[in-house]
Structure formats: structure tokens, C-alpha cells
Amino acid sequence: MDINPAESETLKSVYRLAGPEGVARSGDLAEALAISPAAVTARLKKLDERGFLEHRPYQGVSLTKAGRLAAVAAIRRHRIVERFLSDMLGYAWDQADRLAVTFEHALPSEVVQRMYSALDRPTTCPHGFPIPEAEAEEVAELPTLANADPGDRVEVALRGDTHPEVVSFLEEIGIRPGVVVTVEERQPFDGPIVVDVGGIERVLGHRLASEIYVSNIEKERE
């Protein structure tokens, strides 16, 4: 079944906000999509009627199997288009994220697949997040730097909606998607984390470290 751009973005947001319990809240969706609660309710009702999700007023929203497939397919499409904009057209990773949303929905699936092949089947988007396989029901989740252990060597990934001031600060200290850092120290009770970035020690607060995602984790050898 075809879905329009607004429905696609809604399914993506439900998937991202559902969390371990598999339930997203209407208020959170309205904020994420930057639309009114009434508009969210109208979209959810239509998607419920079409079998993409189950909307229980005052309880939340959960995706059906069809909804998960559509949401993951939309995430895959977005990440492939981002990769194309970054690798082939030279856009910065954060610019690619914003631009991809403006036209990704207009591209036929065949074109997106050809982009994917032309890019030599990349495994991650420019932010460092995994590109799911075609027809997958789940997207691999990445842990955050706040949960890494001392001695871990990790590759940085950043969400597209990371605040620009946070992105700017991290750029200043050499932390951006694809950069490998080593965790030197992690203080208990949500204390600061010390990381080695290109031979320079940087101290990050727990809250900031929680906004930095990591992959390709290499554990310290015993």
C-alpha cells in the first residue's frame, strides 16, 4: 500500500519514539513532527484504519507488522539518500539529513536501490547509523558513549536532530560521525567521561555523552 510523505514521516517517528515497550505517545509525536495534537490524531486514525498501527486513545500508539515494515523501509530510504548526498554530492552529514527529507519520498524505490548499488552498498548513513536491509522489520540500535566502558575504542555516530550548538561544540573538539575515540575514564553516578580524541583528552558530561552514539566497539583486551 502506498503511503504519502506525511504518513511516512509519522511512521518513522512512531518507530523511533516507541522504545522498549513498543508504544509511542501522541504528545511526543506532535512535538517530533512539529504539528498540532489534533493533526497527529487525524494522521494516526487514518494509519490505524489502513492497518499500519494500533491507536488507543490515552494509551499510546504501536506499530503493526505492516507499520514496522513501512517505517523501517522509510528509514532505509532516508539513510541511502543521505549517503548519496554526502558521498556523491559532497554535502556535510548534517546538511544531507535536512535535504534528504525534502525529496526522498518522491523517488521511486528502483531509483533508491540504484543509488544504493552505485554507492557500493554502504552499511551506514553519514551519521554513522546502520542502513537496514531491504524488507527488514527492525533497525539495529546503537548504544551511547555514556554506556561505554573504560578502554573501549568506539566510532562516533550522531543523530540528525542533535542541537546545532551541540554539533558545533563537538566539531570544535574533534568529535564527529566516523571519528574513533577511546574511553579513558568513566566516573560513577552519572559523572563525567574522559575520552581520547586523536591523542587529546576531552572531558564530557554524562548528559552530552548520552547524545553521542557509538558503534564498532572494540573492548580492551584483558
Concise synopsis of the structure shown:
The protein has 222 residues and is of the alpha+beta class.
Give your account of this protein's structure:
By secondary structure, the protein is an alpha+beta fold. Among the domains are: 5-63, Arc Repressor Mutant, subunit A, CATH 1.10.10; 145-218, SH3 type barrels, CATH 2.30.30. It contains 8 helices and 7 strands. The chain has helices spanning 5-18, 26-33, 37-49, 65-87, 93-103, 109-118, 164-172, 206-209; strands spanning 53-56, 60-63, 153-157, 180-186, 193-197, 200-204, 213-218. A 5-stranded antiparallel sheet has the order 6-5-4-3-7. A hairpin with a 2-residue loop joins strand 5 (193-197) and strand 6 (200-204). Helix 4 crosses helix 6. The longest helix is centred in the middle third of the chain and has 23 residues, at 65-87. The N and C termini lie far apart (52 Å). 35% of the residues are buried. The model has no long low-confidence stretch (mean pLDDT 93).
| CATH architecture level-2 label of the domain at 145-218 | Roll
For the largest beta-sheet, the strand count, sense and barrel status come to: 5 strands, antiparallel
Number of strands: 7
CATH superfamily (homologous) name of the domain at 145-218 = Ferrous iron transport protein A (FeoA)
Mean pLDDT: 93
